[in-house]
């Protein structure tokens, strides 16, 4: 169910681009000045601000009801976009969409981290995230089909409205169905008895004297945020998110201008790299869990992205450049769930994991803004500054991940030798380098 609603969230935040070319730009005059860019960017403001507050309250209200409320609320925003007559109203709804969607991604990662242990999370977070790639692959095709709907003689003959109306209704319905299928945190799970709840909580809270979850206060939350390691995780996720966004914006240019494909062929050829990324990401996440190491897989994927970007940039044969696109898409996309799992695995206390995931994804929103602005029109057709910015960020990611993992490995060794007090304040806890 988490995969379903996450896929819907990706469709709902990106369907504005499909609506734009289906007549939205003409009817609401989004082609004037920076109106369209404004409507896009306001989404990230609320998305960045409200992720941490959402994870602060999700365990208090219960994931089933809190997430269901968020799903219905953003579905209503999308549905409302189908009836707007002003670009200002559309922009306000986009801002509210960011506010309500903010809680899903960090909340879902928090839920997964509350049920599974260190070396059980990577493949599960990866499977959850891959729902976004399916949405990216099939979303434009679905939106095109909806844009063909025409009813009556008034505004309902404008196909772009039906993209918002149908997808909005689908999301609202999913929100009402969600309480029956979403799994809550272990201590609130109705399908477990008290003994099973204790076991579920204890297995992910290794070494704690008390396995009862304690809700952090606002002061305790800010104290947790002061941990310097969270800053490192945020930089890692910023790089991963900005690279994903930048490649998503650059890919159509590669296929159409760089390789000379028509619009229809470029759309069709956009999907295979993402399909490859889904299977490769899940496989490498399984390997990471199996070998009980994170950094070799994360660094390998980052360097794979670098190789792919270099091939795209400097090789002229279309077939080879397309192969480079496979590598680049896989390397950048796979490290998004991998980085989230990495941050969760270095956090001993369950209550802190919600803070970590929310902080990382909040910074990821800034990565979305960065990724959408580093490819400037004056740099066409090679977009050399944007490409090299992405390459350099990936190299930084590899260096930072390797350095942090070596630090964690040293801390584990000191703890094993009795030279270090309880790591993260929890007896028996060890980092997952």
From TrEMBL:
InterPro entries: MFS, MFS_dom, MFS_trans_sf. GO terms for cellular component: membrane. It is found in: Membrane. It holds the Pfam family MFS_1. Signal peptide: none annotated. SUPFAM superfamilies: MFS general substrate transporter. It comes from Coniosporium apollinis (strain CBS 100218). PROSITE patterns: MFS (PS50850). Residues 1-413 form the Major facilitator superfamily (MFS) profile domain. One of its GO terms (molecular function) is transmembrane transporter activity. The chain crosses the membrane at residues 34-53, 65-87, 93-116, 128-150, 162-183, 230-251, 271-288, 295-316, 322-343, 355-375, 387-408. PANTHER family: MAJOR FACILITATOR SUPERFAMILY (MFS) PROFILE DOMAIN-CONTAINING PROTEIN-RELATED (PTHR43791:SF47), PERMEASE-RELATED (PTHR43791). Keywords: Membrane, Transmembrane, Transmembrane helix, Transport. This is Major facilitator superfamily (MFS) profile domain-containing protein. It is a multi-pass membrane protein. The lineage of its organism: Eukaryota, Fungi, Dikarya, Ascomycota, Pezizomycotina. The keyword Transmembrane applies. Gene3D superfamilies: MFS general substrate transporter like domains.
